[in-house]
Amino acid sequence: MATINWDEFKQYKQEHLNPKKLDNFGLLIGFMRSYYNVTDAHRLFEWLREDPLSSAMMQKRAISDGDLLERYIEALR
Question: How far apart are CA 74 and CA 49, in angstroms?
């Protein structure tokens, strides 16, 4: 897996509207899905797990596997 480009994420946050008032983790998921074209929650989970900051974000939300991440993403819709 590649590393998350946090500079691009910051740019993404500034350029995209946030009408649902998503927190940084919700925005990160949107960024990963659009910038890296990652649509599979299990693949996304593995990628996020490798990054210390995003791993801490998932831990805070008790997301410990791809199924829980998929449920979290569904709740964002």
Answer: 19
Is residue 30 a contact partner of residue 8, using CB atoms and an 8 Å limit?
Answer: no
Helix (H, G, I), strand (E, B), or coil: what is residue 5?
coil
- pTM score above 0.85: yes
Which residue's structure tokens are 């993403």? 73
pLDDT-based confidence at 1, cuts 50/70/90? low
d(CA 28, CA 48): 10
- Supply 51's token pair: 């990054």
Q: For the CA atoms of the chain, what is the radius of gyration?
A: 12
Q: State pLDDT tens for residues 29-50.
A: 999 999 999 999 999 999 999 9
